[in-house]
């Protein structure tokens, strides 16, 4: 029945042809091949001589393979989280960084360290997931109760909320002498990734499949609460499920890697410029582009001052900030023309 409803919406609103494009097009296959090439390059970039040392290939499977897998899974997770959040809120500037979700995840990690002096990765991940869910729901509830005239105000409010949570986390960390834990989280890096410390990231594949299965319902929810309810969709339930999936993805990334800014902002916006806003057809593209961007940033972070390494969040944050400014300028241009 939902497929019929979705089809009806498409006909009534004169949906453009990209909604019916096949996923495995020539351009998408080329993009996948490009990401595979980047992954191969990532496997052989590093200071340690894999081929010249006796234990080189052991280190290859202990560090290089897990790091590259973590790059691909993390890139897909953060880009996908941004896409879903933008669809639900009907705002192109919303993603885990601009809503305070990542800062809430950091607060969850700090809370776990306060409760358990030497927490396992599972405990840290659960704490980050729970606090990410709470923080995202707080942001969504605020948007539902306050009517904002400009879409530009939404990310500003989210950034302010994130700054407050970040400041509180820093204060608590200093008060309980745990500032080192907070500092490590703020510096999102793949350097510590190795076998045994990244396996939870494979859960992201399950999240991606679930979001793809819910794509039609999420697309209808993105039309607005009134329209979604008029089409027979339980709007609150689908938003709750989407928020839970986002919280799980962001929580896992926060616990394993750390803070990765702006990835969920730039990737969905780049894809929507060329393909529109259909979730089901854009999701594979968003995942692939997210993988490619974060892999490129990580390769740059490992080679720019070799043999030392810059945190990937520094490269990603710089690129994301530039793209964010460009998107803001594109949004303001039509108003000036009027």
From TrEMBL:
Parts of the chain that traverse the membrane: 28-48, 69-88, 100-116, 123-146, 152-177, 198-218, 238-271, 283-304, 310-329
Keyword Flavoprotein (UniProt): no
Keyword Transmembrane helix appears in the UniProt entry: yes
Cited InterPro entries: ABC_BtuC-like, ABC_transptr_permease_BtuC
Alphabetical list of Pfam families matching this protein: FecCD
UniProt keyword annotations, A-Z: Cell membrane, Membrane, Transmembrane, Transmembrane helix, Transport
Primary location group: membrane
Domain of life: Bacteria
Membrane-topology descriptor: Multi-pass membrane protein
Location(s), subcellular: Cell membrane
Assigned protein family: Belongs to the binding-protein-dependent transport system permease family. FecCD subfamily.
PANTHER family tied to this protein: FERRIC ENTEROBACTIN TRANSPORT SYSTEM PERMEASE PROTEIN (PTHR30472), PETROBACTIN IMPORT SYSTEM PERMEASE PROTEIN YCLN (PTHR30472:SF27)
Protein's UniProt name: ABC transporter permease
Organism: Corticicoccus populi
């Amino acid at each position: 029945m939902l497929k019929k409803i979705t089809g009806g919406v498409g006909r009534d609103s004169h949906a453009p042809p990209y909604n019916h494009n096949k996923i495995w097009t020539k351009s998408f296959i080329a993009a996948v091949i490009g990401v595979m090439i980047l992954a191969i390059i990532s496997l052989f970039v590093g200071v340690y001589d894999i081929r010249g040392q006796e234990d080189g290939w052991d280190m290859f499977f202990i560090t290089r393979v897990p790091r590259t897998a973590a790059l691909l899974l993390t890139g897909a997770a953060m880009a996908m989280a941004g896409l879903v959040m933008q669809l639900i809120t009907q705002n192109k500037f919303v993603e885990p960084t601009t809503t305070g979700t990542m800062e809430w995840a950091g607060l969850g990690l700090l809370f776990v360290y306060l409760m358990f002096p030497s927490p396992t990765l599972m405990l840290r991940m659960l704490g980050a997931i729970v606090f990410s869910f709470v923080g995202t729901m707080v942001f969504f509830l605020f948007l539902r109760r306050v009517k904002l005239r400009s879409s530009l105000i939404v990310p500003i409010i989210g950034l302010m909320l994130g700054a407050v949570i970040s400041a509180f986390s820093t204060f608590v960390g200093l008060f309980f002498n745990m500032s080192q834990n907070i500092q490590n989280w703020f510096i999102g890096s793949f350097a510590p990734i190795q076998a045994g410390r990244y396996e939870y990231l494979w859960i992201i594949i399950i999240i991606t499949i679930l979001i793809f299965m819910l794509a039609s319902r999420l697309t209808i929810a993105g039309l607005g609460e009134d329209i979604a309810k008029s089409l027979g969709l339980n709007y609150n339930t689908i938003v709750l499920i989407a928020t839970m999936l986002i919280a799980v993805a962001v929580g896992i990334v926060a616990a394993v890697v750390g803070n990765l800014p702006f990835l969920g902002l730039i990737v969905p916006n780049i894809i929507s410029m060329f393909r529109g806003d259909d979730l089901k057809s854009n999701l594979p593209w968003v995942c692939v582009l997210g993988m490619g961007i974060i892999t490129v940033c990580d390769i740059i972070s490992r080679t720019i001052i070799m043999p030392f390494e810059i945190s990937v969040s520094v490269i990603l944050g710089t690129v994301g900030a530039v793209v964010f400014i460009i998107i803001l300028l594109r949004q303001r241009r039509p108003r000036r023309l009027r």
